[in-house]
Amino acid sequence: QVQLVESGGGLVQAGGSPRLSCAASGRTFTRYSMGWFRQAPGKEREFVAVISWTGDTTYYADSAKGRFTISRDNAKNTVYLQMSSLKPEDTAVYYCAARNWGGNYVEKNTYHTWGQGTQVTVSS
What we know:
By secondary structure, the protein is mainly beta. Helices cover 0% and strands 48% of the residues. The protein is built from no helices and 11 strands. Strands 2, 4, 5, 6, 9, 10 and 11 form a 7-stranded mixed sheet that branches. A 4-stranded antiparallel sheet has the order 1-3-8-7, with no helix packed on it. A hairpin with a 4-residue loop joins strand 7 (68-73) and strand 8. The chain is globular and about 40 Å long.
């Protein structure tokens, strides 16, 4: 089983480019594809991006395309979310999660392990 810990959130000005990290413990990290989700106050948790276990396949939500980049370093057991051109509407708690490849990666119930989340607040 893998455990996930996110970091890198905080207060960011609009237009900023923070990078979120998700550190995984356990030797099974490389077996899983990894996703990022976010949840704004009063809203459902929504898909942001996913990356395959090899790192060569990625998918993004429309809201993230062109602004966010997901990557992973399997030697460091870490997955990243590089964000840019942030907007106030990107304010949310960001979660990383692990899943087996296949199925609908947009659906949060296909992910079996979640981190505790990191808050990103974008000021205008």
